[in-house]
Amino acid sequence: MTIYNKRGPAPIDKGWSWVVMSAVMLSTFLEMGLYKSFGIFFVEYVEKFGSSATMTSVISGVYLAGYSFVALIMMTYGLGRISCRQSVMIGGVFISIGYLVSSLATTIEIVILAQGVFTGL
């Protein structure tokens, strides 16, 4: 009777893939959480800026349009020119700028520009 020792090659990532997976999960939860909690912001924007519901809902529409357009461009052309890591870093900077400017906004138009456009990028 022959006993075989099936020892495969050493793992390439040495456990680093769990850190990457956790970071991606956290990023996804934050992004979807912010998008899904827009209803809470919606009521506050209407009360704070005295804007109509239609004008306030433009924020979400601009966000989704920008997100879809930039995703199409990045998947088609962008990732051939920059790495995934650079793409995530650039996106994080745009989202941070968008929410920072949105928190300092004095009119609903600035919120549309900041939260809709910058966060959608």
UniProtKB/TrEMBL annotation:
Parts of the chain that traverse the membrane: 16-35, 55-80, 92-118
Domain of life: Eukaryota
Statement: the UniProt record of this protein carries the keyword Lipid biosynthesis: no
UniProt-recorded Gene Ontology molecular function terms: monocarboxylic acid transmembrane transporter activity
InterPro entries cross-referenced by the UniProt entry: MFS_trans_sf, Proton-linked_MCT
Keywords: Membrane, Transmembrane, Transmembrane helix
Protein name: Monocarboxylate transporter 3
Lineage: Eukaryota, Metazoa, Spiralia, Lophotrochozoa, Mollusca
